[in-house]
Specification:
The protein is mainly alpha-helical and 240 residues long. The chain contains eight helices and two strands; from the N terminus they run αααααααββα.
């Protein structure tokens, strides 16, 4: 006689829903993934590739000889990320910065040499530029002598402050470029009284209350950009 397994089936726990930070990371990953998908079928002319390789090897050899003191020392770096004295005073950091800039130039030249339509080439340049900016030695504490020097001078307070800001961004689900606690609607943001007279899925039309006894018969229509729209119209005494 066959036996049946009467033990209850285990329910699969629901998948965790991504938070705002996860949504942003997923959106960025999707955008970069789409950019790389658009690269399928592209080609880099062999002649351009050979030229770039030869030029890269020549510059890297010269850079290596300069680091060993076998040739004339290069001019100071003009890139603002590496312009501090801490980079020039640290031979290994200076070599790392110069090698990074050489790699960055070579990658961008390869992106420019790609045979593709204008839209695809723009996507390639965007994807390469994002990777280059993210890979900068100035973004990493172990490779950034300026940040290391500041950490020593502040007795570690600069690192602690950075970690504090990182945790705050994670908690609120987005990155902040300013102290958002100093802004208060009605006090130093949106201080002019007004009424929303029309709105739809794309915009709001606000009619502001006049502050003078007489006004022009025809009102002025302002269409601010989506970025920094509140900053543009914020004209108290301090920034004015």
């Amino acid at each position: 006689m066959a036996k049946t397994n009467s033990s209850p089936k285990r329910k699969t726990p629901p998948s965790p829903q991504p938070g705002p930070l996860g949504d942003n990371a997923q959106a960025f990953g999707q955008a970069v993934g789409d950019a790389f998908k658009s690269m399928a079928g592209m080609s880099l002319p062999l002649q351009d590739l050979t030229r770039l390789q030869q030029h890269y090897l020549q510059e890297m050899t010269q850079l290596w000889n300069q680091a060993l003191g076998a040739s004339e020392q290069p001019a100071p770096l003009k890139d603002r990320r590496f312009s501090a004295q801490a980079w020039a005073q640290n031979p290994m950091a200076a070599f790392t910065a110069r090698a990074y800039l050489l790699n960055a130039r070579t990658l961008m030249e390869m992106a420019e040499a790609v045979e593709a339509d204008a839209k695809t080439k723009a996507r390639v340049r965007f994807a390469v530029q994002q990777w280059i900016d993210a890979a900068s030695p100035s973004n990493f504490l172990a490779l950034n002598p300026e940040a290391q020097q500041k950490a020593i001078e502040s007795q570690g307070q600069s690192i602690a402050k950075g970690l504090e800001q990182l945790l705050a961004d994670i908690r609120q689900g987005h990155m902040s470029q300013t102290d958002e606690t100093v802004f208060e609607v009605g006090r130093n943001v949106a201080t002019t009284e007004g009424t929303v007279v029309f709105e739809n899925e794309l915009m709001q039309l606000i009619e502001y209350k006049p502050l003078t006894a007489q006004v022009h018969e025809r009102p002025i229509l302002f269409v601010p950009p989506c970025i920094n729209k509140y900053y543009i119209f914020r004209l108290p005494a301090s920034p004015s």
